[in-house]
Amino acid sequence: MKEKKKKHKSMLKWFIASIFLIFMVRAFFFSNYVVEGHSMNPTLEQGNFLMVNKMVYAFSKPERFDIVVFSHPEEKFNYVKRVIGLPGDQLEYIKDQLYVNGEPVLEPFIASDQLKVFGGNFTGDFSLEELTGKEKVPKGHVFVIGDNRLNSLDSRHFGYVSMEDIVGKVHVRYWPFDEINTTFK
């Protein structure tokens, strides 16, 4: 009987320790985010639930086309957008073609039928210098744009995003269940 009680106490301790560990990992490494708005359509839609890895950029830097959640220093809520420009990049869009440092770069997440529907000027022509007065993305910053270019408040409007303001990288869309996804490129 004593041995059975010891076993139950031991299992209870392990259970409590496991729950504590799960909450700690959740608090420090991951965050949930609910998509609000249509700026990332069709990749992410309003009401999608996302899991954001908060620690990924503690050990690495954002990569082009990562989807990130960040807090805007002047706003009281978070945004979710796609990283288009990295520090040192010179960016330009001409006729819906992205050029990075003078070289054309494909954006596989923008479907060709989206471009056709909107008449070939889905993103709008611009250069960084025209928008921001700077020729290149500054050190410690990224340039972000929503996938729904015609309906996105992003770096074209509010400028660069400091890497310090990035909450984390979107790793999983877990709601709705039939649209679970871990690949967003």
TrEMBL record:
InterPro entries: LexA/Signal_pep-like_sf (IPR036286), Pept_S26A_signal_pept_1 (IPR000223), Pept_S26A_signal_pept_1_CS (IPR019758), Pept_S26A_signal_pept_1_Lys-AS (IPR019757), Pept_S26A_signal_pept_1_Ser-AS (IPR019756), Peptidase_S26 (IPR019533). It catalyses: Cleavage of hydrophobic, N-terminal signal or leader sequences from secreted and periplasmic proteins. The chain crosses the membrane at residues 12-35. It holds the Pfam family Peptidase_S26. Keywords: Hydrolase, Membrane, Protease, Transmembrane, Transmembrane helix. Its main location: membrane. The lineage of its organism: Bacteria, Bacillati, Bacillota, Bacilli, Bacillales. This is Signal peptidase I. It is a single-pass type II membrane protein. The gene is sipV. Belongs to the peptidase S26 family. Its EC number is 3.4.21.89. It comes from the Bacteria.
